[in-house]
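call fold(seq) -> tokens
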Amino acid sequence: MQVFVPSTPLLAVSPEVANALAGGRAVVALESTIITHGMPHPQNLEMATRVEAIVRERGAVPATIAIMGGRLRVGLEPADLALLARTGPAAAKASRRDVAALLNSGATAGTTVATTMQAAHLAGIRLFATGGIGGVHRGAELSFDVSADLEELARTPVAVVCAGAKAILDIPKTLEMLETKGVPVIGYGTADFPAFWTRSSGLTVDTRIDTPGEIADLLATQFSLGMGGVLIGNPIPEASAMDEHVIATMIERALGDAAAAGISGKATTPFLLKRIFELTDGKSLVANIALVENNARVAADVAVALAERSR
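ret:
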């Protein structure tokens, strides 16, 4: 079997992931800011280990991505996951603008949705599972705070399975921006765009698709045309969803606390997630873990279907 060769020496693909790609097998990329900045230790390590196991159970190979030792690492060993989890927020948070500097410095960094997509594309991975994407922040008409995730989705041909945009964001503006950027927004088994901790934002997706095979067919067409990414909204399981009125109240309180503390820029999302965890007595973290696991299952199923169509 031919061993996959990375397209740049700054990209280090693990042997397991490289062999899977060379053999045309299904691979699912996984981000690492959810490990470093999204959850406390040890829940972050338990989540990362479980999500990788779920991808394997569904017949695909997991490829957790991070910046470590001056390289974009695609596929991590258990010791690497443990190191990221212990390092937590002391690690850098790497979006696209930060990549070159972090690689040159040799720093350890969790990769955001944007940077994970970038690395996945360099490695030849088409499917990526995460919790929720970044988007247009509330008050962006004054702050201009818009996540680089949206631009990455517009230009990078990777499909992202998520539970919608993070509910702390301005979801209507986020969807409007995705439309402007030409990003297809698919609802997996739903016509509603999910809102992270809840199953619906009250807004609709572009297209509802009910099976992994149909999503794979759409992705094959999208990628054959040389177009950008696809966003697949997969609602949190009903049993794990939070009450929309309760979470809305907690988000407003957390936003007020962030404003009072002068939090802005890329520190905003980690602060808000941590504050909502505190305000909900940990219930938001339980929901977060459930939705990430659910997204990993769907991404793996779609990756397997897409790999079958490529043979």
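The longest strand covers residues 61-68.
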